[in-house]
Amino acid sequence: MIDDTTTLGELDEEHILAELLPVLTRHTSATVRVGVGDDAAVLAAHVSVVATTDTMVKGVDWRDDWSLPQEVGRKLVAQNVSDLAAMGARPTGLLLTVASEPNLPLRWLLQLGEGVSAAAAEAGTVVVGGDVSAAPGGVVLLGMTAIGDLEGRAPVTRAGARPGDVVAVRGSLGRSGAGLRLLGQGAAREEMTGAAAQLVADHCAPRPPWEAGAEAAAAGATSMIDLSDGLVRDASRVARASDVRLDLESDLLAVQVAALAEVVGEEAAWADVLGGGEEHSLLATFGPTARPPHGWLAIGAVAAAHDAESPVTLDGQRVEVTGWDHFDRSTAGREGVAGPRALPGTTKGRSETDRP
Amino acid sequence: MIDDTTTLGELDEEHILAELLPVLTRHTSATVRVGVGDDAAVLAAHVSVVATTDTMVKGVDWRDDWSLPQEVGRKLVAQNVSDLAAMGARPTGLLLTVASEPNLPLRWLLQLGEGVSAAAAEAGTVVVGGDVSAAPGGVVLLGMTAIGDLEGRAPVTRAGARPGDVVAVRGSLGRSGAGLRLLGQGAAREEMTGAAAQLVADHCAPRPPWEAGAEAAAAGATSMIDLSDGLVRDASRVARASDVRLDLESDLLAVQVAALAEVVGEEAAWADVLGGGEEHSLLATFGPTARPPHGWLAIGAVAAAHDAESPVTLDGQRVEVTGWDHFDRSTAGREGVAGPRALPGTTKGRSETDRP
Fold first, then answer.
1. What are the tens digits of pLDDT across the range A175-193?
2. Domains (range + CATH), chain B
3. From which domain of life does this come (chains A, B) (predicted)?
4. Cα distance from A211 to chain B (closest Cα, Å)?
5. pLDDT in tens, B280-333
6. Which of A24, A54, A145, A331 has the highest number of chain B CBs within 10 A, making it the mutation to test binding with B?
7. ipTM over the 0.85 cut-off
8. Cβ separation of A42 and B49 shorter than 8 Å?
């Protein structure tokens, strides 16, 4: 008898899958030739296949008192699909891994599945396989692999930015970081309303611009990256991979800051826009004659790199964000923006529970 | 200063990856267009993409006192590549996920990487991406996703077996189960020699017939499955998916039993051949006029199914193996072969540590 109090330890794998798979495969996709239930999934593709994977660990990447299971499922899809989008690909299938302590409620898993399924459908894809296994007490680990199709286009890597290119962003900046900041300040989620509640919701279940990556690739983006670790940190990765400098302009970021400042204050808003993680918006560069598709916001320009120079500048000044790292405990709680434009209190946002 | 005593908690992600990636990418592959280091990997493919994923949890799927890290790495690759092979595909890229407690020695991770890298090279593929994240104390979880290419062939599913087909196996039977049986009996690995030591090695690091799946597909296999949960249990899956019955013949299995019987005795050898898990050999069916490729051993024939009948028979008698299940603790320690040909003590072999 399965009800809302059933835990995974009371069921065998077959019964767990019998409950979970209908939730995960509620939607269909034309690119799936063989879905769940065989040794492996078979996905239609053109010439190249794009693949990425990400893991979320309870107590490290989410907290049950902050995030609903549906939101955790959405976030898992968002992280992976935005990595595909950053290559210029569209998703063709998702593989979901669950490694859990036996006393996880089945209800939680099915609600996670609802979030996965809904976000996958928004992104135009479905779950085509995965793995469920037991883990020691206290452990709930979720893994996702997303497979994507370039539809004949060349992949857009981090290494193609050239001096003279425009730097542009698609999607919001700093909202996830600001939401984490509010949660970290101890505010109870159920008492939040309006803009604050929306920032927290955007942290718990980001909604990346699913379509924008393929559109940017088709429009000739020269480089692209998913903003998972903060604007400055991810822009630095493009700069280093392309051997260029990215010059950002604060005037062009002001509209993003203003949207946050009314809730978290201007100083924190700047820190979140420059350094807040888990936003999963896209940063791309476009050649000087290319026209970024609708919805992309120019935020700066690409310049030639010179040795020993900051890879990213803001209004011509060095800007550097020291971020949070999964393994290096010495950085936890020491986040901040360094340099001439020092902006304390940057929410790096990779971890909900490792913050002070 | 990194040495053999360094743990993951002493390093940041960047340094962990700087150590691990050279180990993982020691070999190259012509199907990789963009490997590790960008948002996602890009793999060359023909028309369809095959994808599968598997997870191994320390304390559930391996024990550090039984398995070397290189062996755990080999087993992770074996599980995944054999799932691709069972669809008729060749691997084009692997994604590796590590979620670990911070005090895991880096040395262990690099030795795992050596096993992954070596097994991947044998299978003709490489690691093209992945994810490293922190997990709570006591937890080491490994995930792998394998992406494969059908090279223009149709996928070989579990559902294509037809009455009159030949049932054939490629690779060994029961060796991994027998090796687990020896470990479970408390024998110290370093004191084992000869055939016993080899059975244990085959359990800790199975070497599936990497190439055989694509060859069988090209030769017209009508159905195929990876033997991960035991011959009878996996044959039953093919029978149910194809709506047929698989009739196995003990005479044709005798050679496999004889190889084990000298070490574990005849009764245990039968139990391991029929029910032992984690072998990762392939079971396929071939049409009556098809010629299975070199190395495939005929072990029976496909018959029409009748209602309420056993999906698999041995010498015309019902045979059923009750196996171990990851979540259902009530089955742990109650493994065995039921029915007329009852063979007690079957090693199901999905778990090293949940055995009595």
1. 999 999 999 998 788 889 9
2. 8-149 (3.30.1330.10), 166-344 (3.90.650.10)
3. Bacteria
4. 16
5. 999 999 999 988 999 999 999 999 998 667 899 999 998 866 544 545 444 333
6. A145
7. no
8. yes
